[in-house]
Structure formats: structure tokens, C-alpha cells
Amino acid sequence: MIGDEMRRGDVLALEGVSVWRGGRQILDEVGFSLAPGEFTGLIGSNGAGKTTILRVVMGLLAPAEGTVLVNGRPLARRNRSVGYVPQKVLIDPDAPLRASDLVALGLDGEKVGPRTPSRQRRQRVEEMLDAVDATAFADARVGNLSGGELQRVLIAHALISRPQLLLMDEPLANLDIRSGQEIVDLLARIAEQQRIAVLLSAHDMNPLLPVMDRVVYVAGGRVAVGTTDDVVRTEVLSKLYGHQVNVLRVDGRVLVVSGSHVSLDAIPRQSGAPAADASVEGR
Amino acid sequence: MEGILHALFAPGFGHSEPVRTAVLAGAVVALVSGAVGVITVLRGQSFAGHALSALGTLGGSAAFLVGITPLWGFVTSGFIVAGAMELVGTQRRSGRDVATGLVLSTALGLSALFLYFETIVNSTTGVTITILFGSLFALNGITLPAMILLGIVCLVLLALLYRPLLLSSVSSELAAARGIPVRTLGVAFLMLLALSAALSSVTVGTILSSALLIGPAATALRLTKRPAVAMVLAGVIGMVSTWVGIVLAYDSYRWPPAGKGWPVSFCVVAVLFTVYLLTGLGSRLRTARVRQRRAGAPVTGQPLPTVRQG
Amino acid sequence: MFADYMLNAWVVATIVAVVAPVVGFFVVLRGSAFVAHAVPEAAFAGAAGASLLGLNTIFGLGAFALGASLGIGMLGRRGRHDVVTALALVMLLGAGSLFLGWSTEYAPEIYSLLFGEVLGVSGNEIGLTALLGALCLGAIAVLYRPLLLTSVAPELAAARGIRNHRIDMAFLVVVALATTTAVPVVGALLMFSLMVGPAATARCLTDRPLHAVVLSVVIALLTAWASIAAAYQTNWPVGFFVTAFAFAGYLLAHGGRWIRNAYSRPQAPLAGESAA
């Protein structure tokens, strides 16, 4: 495993986090950290433990071992410095709720007591909608939005309370390639402009390659952390998986395939070769 | 009410005609309700099931007004209401419950009107209570053959529709992809539900018939994961509970508060509810034992969402 | 129609027509119409029990409404809400039939608890109704934002640190409170239709949550007033008119929306992904 020592000013730091469930170990000594403005991909196949890591970071799941520090402090359940966009949000199209209402609920949706409407609030909601290019459908019912539109509104909902860390659970899973690319570009822009650390989980890293600063690669509950070039290599991933896997780079795309896969014998191996895509760079 | 008194003062439990009818009718209703109930619970349509039996009040009160047997009033109104629910309702589960509620309250309003006319004509209010709560002991022999016939119709229909119903309750998209007309099937099931609700309405009363529909089914689904087994099991649980309830009610006139029998409906429901709670306790103990191993305890108690992508 | 003895009916109906739809907005939003139907109906058993013991029926009503709500909330935590609701409802109704079986003399009173008897409200009941109603509105005002978020997107609420189950329980208590407010004076049936009907109608007419709340109150008030007037004229039961008017309103709003959609569809661009 490639280690990741704590850096000063880290937004998030996990150390030796282990989680068991039903007698099965889900996470095994997971550790990594995120700096402000950093765009990190949480990459792994289905069931590798990505969602579990996100739930631990959110404080919805207490790890059996290890520490989670947000801004250098232990995790509290109600943490306004962490914004989260779940993978699947189903909203009833019959619910009378506009996109702007949902974004406004991001501001103080958890607070009890009446709120006084103010120009400042409204302005903030409008700014946020503008930042995610959602002004066009601000007054549409949330339940009637398309997948890409809803994703933008959810990002605005998560970001309006000015978190320092944004967690995205598989935002690209239900989107077509173009909408997915737009979301990725939007997130990269926001991370850079607002100095927010973005942790985005995905099973395919290719759409993220141009923007990803670092990768947290998950397999079997363990992680390898570093830049794409450091981590996505045959030796590193083979060690992580515990069996032979091959990393192929074709036309700027990265493929991770199991070494025992028969049909791959015909494909020339390029493992260890420098990245074909110049935009994949370290920090 | 007179039926109860009559039963209580009959010479012995086994020789009492109303008791024998009650035992037989209870068995028929419990078997049918159990089988239909399992599908109802799987489809998440408990409210529709309850509404259809409660709506029997409408048919019942209309039948009293017109002067026909309540059973046919129940059946007719059940069909009409099932159709209305499907017309008003949407495919989404939340919208469906709202539609069910609206149709239910409208029909109850209508039955309030019918009962009002009835009290004007006959100046009695006892009718309301009989329709709402019914009484196994107040059945007469004439309805019994009709009930058995309707019960058989229900079971045959259910057996015919079993597989598409199961598939569409798991996922309506999957069912539609296989060419199953999901909406038509939904209406057909509501009709079936109305029929079985009508059956049980006559025995335990409109409101309490939900108990025979949902109680045994929910209990059985806790005990087994296989729907077909659950349907049979639910029927058996319902039947045994009904019989125990009848015995309790028959004996209860010797219990406090002195001299007044406990209603059969209450006894049956109490037995069903107790069995449901006990199975819940049993399964909780079992899972607690499994969980005692080392585990990262979730703060919220919600299950970990499984990661699922294409 | 506005004679002294009718005045109470107008006042009480107005109170209920303000409280019920505000609670009902969330009932419809959460899709928990069954719970809203079950709690008032189950509470009647409490009234029957209280009258058996010689207590004021409102205590029995309140206790059973609260018990039913909390029971549904706790038992339904892991399993399915609707199954637990059905079982709690029949159990309490069964208890109601037991109490009635022991004291047959209260049948007419129970009849009025189910179907309502708004024309026979006495003056000293109004104070309590108003107080409980105000309490209900206050609770909803305090819980408004978390309740809205948990109702539309529980995942987002959980991510903000809201404990969905607590909000759920709090809301069930509010439903129980509203039940205790309304059932003794207007009956379970009326209460339920004023909760669900206007709220379901209002959400066809507006996209804004607050507008929908206000609109459903307006619709409920119109329904209640028109029903009392009609009942006074015809001598038919108020319950019939309330349910019929509420249903008619719902059908009208839905029909209107359907026509609007049918007309606007040809002009709309081919939004293939809008259903996603």
C-alpha cells in the first residue's frame, strides 16, 4: 500500500480505519488525507468499499478502529464542513418543491424554528444556482428534472452551506457521457475556485483523468493513495488486489484488467509505460 | 348482538349451530385472506386492503337501504371502489396511498349519507355497529355456500395470476419488459382484493377484516422468505387464530366484567396481533445473536446501502 | 344558518380547516395517508374506553392517538410502515369493539366520533380545540424545514445530520395531537378528508411548498364552510358533503393539470431525459 502521511492544513485525514459488518471486514486499515482545493477520485469496483468510506467520512458509520479527522478535529455527526451528494436521490414529481427551494434547504434545512425570509438568503441561493449553471431550471419542480439537472441542484444544495469538503457518491453512474463530463468539469472548477476538497467516488476513472489531482484506489477494503501515475500501475494494483492485474493505457484511457483474463493475451501490455495522456500529471 | 347472546346461551360449544357456522366460515375466510394478504403485503398495498374492507361499509349500508344481502353489497361496492382507486391513483407508491385515502374518505362520506337515510327510515343505529364490527356468531347458514364459492373463485384467480403478480410486485419495470400489462394486472389484483375483503367483511366486520388480511400474511413473511409457502402458512395461521378466537369468545362470558361476552372480532384480532409480536421478538433475538460478533456499529441503525451500478 | 347554536359549528369547523391541511400537507408529501387515516380511527377506541370508565372522552382519545402514533413509529422502524399501521389500527379497533361490547349504550356517541357531528358542538369544547390546534400549528412551524427535507429526500437529510427517525416520530406525535384536536368535534372521517383532500389538490396547483400549505388551508376552509351550509340546507350529514367537495376539488385540479399538460406537450421540445 502506498502510504500517505498527514500534511498540515488537511481538510480530511483518515488513519487506520477498519469497519466490520456481519463478521466480514469491509474496510482494512484505510488511511488517506485531502488538502483544500484538491480533486480526488475514490476509485474501485462495485462492493470494494467506496460507499462505506464515504459514510465513515460523513459520520454515519462509526469505524471499529482508526481515526477520522475533519479539519484536524474528531468527527461530529452534525458537521457543516462536509457536504454530501448521495448516489440516488428519488424525489416525488408530485411534491411541490422547486429546485431553488431544495437549494435553500441546503442553507439551513436541519435547523428547527421559523426562518425569516431575507434578501440576503435569496441572493445566496441565486448565486449558488448560477455557480452550477442551474438558473434556467431554478423554478422547475425538482422531481421533474433530468439526471444531469438534478445532479447540479444537489451540488448546489451541498455547497451552499460553504463546506470545505464535498463528497460525491457515484455522481456519474446514471448520467450519459456528455452530462457526466459537464458535471466533472463543474466540480473541478468549483474545487479550484472555492478551495474545496472534492472526494468523488466512481467505478470508472477515465472521465476523471483530466481533472483528478489524486486517486484513492479501493479494492477489497484496502486502499492505495497517490497521483494517478503513482497508483494506477501494474505492480501497485496487483499488490492491492492480492493477485495479478494489468494496467493498460490505450489512447489516453486507462484499463485495469485481471491478469488471468484469457482474452487479454492478444493485447500488447504497456504496464509501467509512461502515461499516454499528458494531462495526467502529479501535483 | 342477538347472535352473540344466542351463541352464549347455546347448550354446548360443539352443538351450537352458530358456533359451527362460525368455525367453518372463519376457516374459509382465513385461508383466502391469508393467500391474498401475502401478495398484498409484498405489493405494499395494506392501505388499499384496509380501505376496500372499510369501504364494504358503503356497500353494506347501501344493501341495507335497498334490502339485499350485505355480502353482495360488499362485493359490488368493492369492485366499483377498486376501479375508482386505479383511475385516480398514480403509479407511484406515495401517490397511490393518497388516492386510496381520498377514495376511502369519499366512500365513507357516502355511507354516512346512506346510514342517515337508513336511520330516517328505520330509526336504528345498531346497523352501523353491525356493519363495522360484524360478528361470526351472527352469520346465518344462507350466506355460507355463497362464501365458499367466492372463496374458491378467489383462490383460483390467485393461482392463475400468481407469477405475474409476484414479478410485478418485485419490479413493475421488469414485469412490463416481459410484456405483462402491469396496470391491468393492478386493477385485477384490486378486484381480487375487493372480493376477499368482501368475504372477510361479512365475518369479522368491515374494519376488522384488515386484520385477517394483513396479520397472518405479515407473520408468515417473517417466518419464511418463499411467497408460496408464506401464502399457505398465512392461511393456516389465520385459520388457527380464528378458531382460538372463537373458543375464547365462547368462553368469555364467564370472564370479567361479569356476564358480558367479549366480541369475537376482538378475540381474533388479539390472537393475531400477539402471534405477530411474538414472531417479531423471535426474529429479533435471532438477528441479535448474529450481530454479537465484532462489527462496525452503524450510528443510524440504517442498513448500509449496497453499492450498485451498471 | 348563523343562529347562536350554529355559531359553534362555524368556529370549530374553521379551526379544524386551518389545522388539518397544514398537517395534511406533510401527510401527503410523505405519502403517509394510511397513518393519517389510522390514527384518528384508532383513537375512537380510546374514546370508547374512556366513556366506559366514566372519563372525559378526550383523554381516552388523546392517549390512544398518541399510543397508536408512537407504536407505529417504533414498530415500523425496521419493517414496513403500512403493515404495522394496518395491524395497530385493527388491534385498537378491536379494543374499541370490546369496550363497546361491554357498554352498548354509547353506540350513538361512537357513531358521531367516526362520522362527525359538527352541528352539535357545545361552546365549552371550543376553547380546548383552539388551544390544541394552536399547539399543532406551532409544532409544524418549528419543525418546518427539517420536516420538509426529510419528507422529500431522506438521504439528503441524513447527510445534514438530521435523524430521520426522530423527525418521523415527532411528526407522528403532531398527527396524534391534530387527531385529538379534531376528532371529538368533527369526527375521524371529516378530519381525514380535510387533511388529505385539500393538500393533494393544492400540490397540483403550485410548485412552491409554502404556497401549497396556504392554498390547502384556503381550499379546506371553502370546503368546510360550503359543507356546513349545504348540510344546514339539506339536513344531510356534514361528513358526506366534506368528503364529496374535497374529492370533487381534487378531481377538478387533476383534470385541469391533465388538460394543461396535454395542451403544452406538442410545443415542448423532445425532452427525452426529463423522466430520468
What keywords describe this structure?
heterotrimer; A: 283 residues; alpha/beta; Rossmann fold; 2 domains; 6-stranded mixed β-sheet; globular; disordered C terminus; C: 276 residues; mainly alpha; 82% helix; 0% strand
List the helices and strands and how they pair.
The complex is a heterotrimer of chains A (283), B (310) and C (276).
Chain A lengths: L11 E10 L2 E11 L4 E5 L6 H9 L6 E6 L2 E2 L7 E4 L13 H10 L10 H13 L15 H13 L5 E4 L8 H18 L2 E6 L11 E6 L2 E5 L1 H4 L2 H8 L3 E6 L2 E6 L25
Parallel strand pairs in A: 3-8, 3-9, 6-7, 7-8
Antiparallel strand pairs in A: 1-2, 1-4, 4-5, 9-10, 11-12
Helix pairs in contact in A: 2-3, 2-4, 3-4
Chain B lengths: L1 H7 L8 H26 L3 H21 L3 H19 L4 H30 L3 H8 L9 H28 L1 H6 L4 H23 L4 H15 L3 H25 L12 H28 L19
Helix pairs in contact in B: 2-7, 2-9, 2-10, 2-11, 3-4, 3-5, 3-6, 3-9, 3-10, 4-5, 4-9, 7-9, 9-10, 10-11, 10-12, 11-12
Chain C lengths: L3 H27 L2 H21 L3 H19 L5 H22 L4 H9 L8 H29 L1 H6 L4 H23 L1 H18 L3 H26 L3 H27 L12
Helix pairs in contact in C: 1-6, 1-8, 1-9, 1-10, 2-3, 2-4, 2-8, 2-9, 3-4, 3-8, 5-8, 6-8, 8-9, 9-10, 9-11, 10-11
Q: Can you walk through the features of this model?
A:
The complex is a heterotrimer of chains A (283), B (310) and C (276). With 283 residues, chain A is α/β, with parallel strands linked by helices. Chain A has helices spanning 50-58, 99-108, 119-131, 147-159, 177-194, 228-231, 234-241; strands at residues 12-21, 24-34, 39-43, 65-70, 73-74, 82-85, 165-168, 197-202, 214-219, 222-226, 245-250, 253-258. Chain A has two domains: 1-81 and 163-232, Rossmann fold; 91-160, no CATH class. Chain A is built from seven helices and twelve strands. In chain A, helix 2 packs across helix 3. The model of chain A is unreliable at 261-283 (pLDDT under 50). Chain B has twelve helices and no strands. Chain B has a single domain (2-286), classed as ABC transporter involved in vitamin B12 uptake, BtuC (Orthogonal Bundle). Chain B has 310 residues and is mainly α. In chain B, helix 2 (17-42) runs antiparallel to helix 11 (227-251), helix 3 (46-66) packs across helix 9 (182-204) and helix 3 (46-66) packs antiparallel against helix 10. Chain C has a domain at 4-194: ABC transporter involved in vitamin B12 uptake, BtuC (Orthogonal Bundle). Chain C contains eleven helices and no strands. Chain C has helices at 4-30, 33-53, 57-75, 81-102, 107-115, 124-152, 154-159, 164-186, 188-205, 209-234, 238-264. The longest helix of chain C is centred in the middle third of the chain and has 29 residues, at 124-152. Chain C starts with a helix and ends in a 12-residue tail after the last helix.
